[in-house]
Amino acid sequence: MPSATKTRDSSAEDANMEDITPPSAQPVVDSQEGGDPMEEDGEDNELGEEEEEEEPQRVRILPGSTSTAASFEFLKEGHTLGNALRYIIMKNPDVEFCAYAIPHPSEDKMNLRIQTYDTTTATAALEKGLQDLEDLCDVVSEEFWTQRENFMAAKH
Amino acid sequence: MEYDTMMMDGESLGPSVKISAADNTHVDFELSNVDLSFANSLRRVIQAEVPTIAIDLVEIEANTSVLADEFIAHRLGLIPLDSREIDQLNYTRDCDCDQSCGKCTVTLTLHAKCSSDEVMKVYARDLIVGIDRPNNHIGNPIITDPEGQGSLIAKLRKGQELKITCIAKKGIAKEHAKWAPTAAVGFEYDPHNKLHHLDLWYETDKVSEWSVGIPTIRLFPPPRLTAGYRPKSKYAEWEEPPAEGEPFDYDAVPNRFYFEVESAGMIEPDAIIQEGIKELQRKLAGLIHGLGENDDMNGDYDGPRSPDGIEGGAPWQDQGYTTPYAGAGNTSAWGGGGATAYGTTPYGNSGSAGW
Ligand SMILES: [Zn+2]
Asked: Could you tell me which residue ranges the DNA-directed RNA polymerase RBP11-like dimerisation domain spans (chain A) (predicted)?
């Protein structure tokens, strides 16, 4: 059970943090900050590259999720991403339900709920959503530039 | 491009842009065949997340003017600085340097002393831009007035002096409004309020009170007296008004969005749109990257945590593998290491992804 081992490692870290501070929203952030530098070091040593510094983990799956019904927590994201992502994920015919929420205005977090049919998984739907939104951005960007060129040409 | 999904619900043509006016400081356009959520994301991102450069640190060596140091520091921060090709400048927090360097900051100095009996005005043009910077325009004060003076910083009387060193840094308006690339962003849709997203207040008669032809002066583009529909939007002329007695269509969604972007001068208005979209894509790319890389996400996912969120004092290890998610002997796609959804993504889990 290779992943089980991995799981235990990361949760052991969580547990350490939990011992110090009471279980609130805070330890989650702590554990991520605490966990990340290690990951970074490991990578740097392994690859010996001066890869850009790794940001703290931005997305995680919230407890209680299953493969086809998951809640994701995004750090440092808000309505800008949340609403557009929700829309594009709902466009996916394999998705049964998608919604987002910002649980508290003074916490810089955005939660996204995805429930899919058996044809896909929630994580796959999220990945597809991110990719689709990026493609949509490409299309709009290209269209805007084309129209701008046309407008400028017509003006002169 | 997995874009076919967009072809549903009347968006058959794909996103379309129609530019109605543009000059050095404005661009007015209509964005159609996209969802309200996307149009609003674009509005939000161009207002708050397109990076620019602005004065962030001010060192005051001499200030014998009547204005307090912090007052002047604040005014300096608000001076628009040339932010074209901002990609060439690092965020100071991402830079390799200790405090600041030519790759992440631009230094501006100001030295003015009034020696005449007349009041001396100190303008943005009096700022001297340091040479250590990525290109020769970034950080230049924006000067658009015919006199070529730029923003007024302070007035000095005889004998008064200002000697100041400023460090300008890259930032976004979400952190401080001085980094906002836009002076204003107009955003509207459904000028006839057919969708009833607004509940327009009226005294006695909705129609006459909301569409009186009050002569209005349109300032842009070219100033002109229009027998305008005030307070109705000028875009009301662009869309069909509702027919008499037309039933409310509860399935209708907004489809045409009218943007009026006004630049503060740091970046051209059309570049603001481009940069905004780029910024959205940067967000997405970062998340796709993070998603592919983080096996930890699985950890939280099938980890020995009770789905009921009982985290209290129960030791992790002992309680582990009794939850519904891990109990199945890792036969689910989520359980077994190499068999996780992530194990098979092109992003791998070694951190060697090409991003
Ligand atoms: Zn630097």
From this structure: 70-142
**A16 occurs within a structural domain:** no
DSSP label of B241: P
Residue A124 lies in a domain: yes
- E-assigned strands of chain B? 16-22, 26-32, 52-63, 105-113, 120-123, 128-129, 152-156, 161-171, 182-189, 216-218, 224-226, 256-263
Residues from chain A that touch B286, judged by Cβ atoms under 8 A, are 55, 58
Q: Is the ipTM of this complex over 0.85?
A: no
Interface of A with B in 62-121 (CB under 8 A): 62-67, 70, 74, 77, 79-81, 83-84, 86-88, 91-93, 121
Tell me which residue of A119, A1, A53, A51 sits closest to B326, measured CA to CA.
Answer: A1
Mean per-residue pLDDT for B266-275? 96
Contact predicate B325/B334, CB 8 Å: yes
Helix, strand and coil content of chain B, in percent to the nearest 5, comes to 25, 25, 50
**Unique residue bearing structure tokens 């583009």:** B221
Q: What is the distance in A from the centroid of ligand 1 to the CA of A57?
A: 25
Peptide bond into A2 cis (omega under 30): no
Q: What is the CATH number of the domain that holds A86?
A: 3.30.1360.10
- Could you tell me which residues are beta bridge partners of residue B226? B216
| Chain B closest-CA separation from residue A154 CA (Å) | 11
Give pLDDT tens digits for B76-92.
999 999 999 999 999 99
Sequence spans of domains, chain B: 18-49+182-288, 52-175
| pTM assigned to the model | 0.74
| Number of Cβ atoms within 10 Å of the Cβ of A37 | 12
Which class does domain B18-49+182-288 fall in? alpha beta
Q: What is the pLDDT of residues A31-87, one digit of tens each?
A: 344 334 444 444 444 444 445 555 578 899 999 999 999 999 999 999 999 999 999
Q: Which residue has the tokens 């530098």?
A: A37
Q: What is the total count of domains within chain A? A: 1
> Does residue A7 lie within any of the structural domains?
no
Backbone angles phi, psi at B132, to 5 degrees: -80, 90
Give the pLDDT of residue B242. 85
Chain B: nearest CA to A129, how far in angstroms?
10
Interface test with B, best of A36, A137, A156 (most B CBs within 10 A): A137
Is A29 inside a domain boundary? no
Residue A103: domain span:
59-154
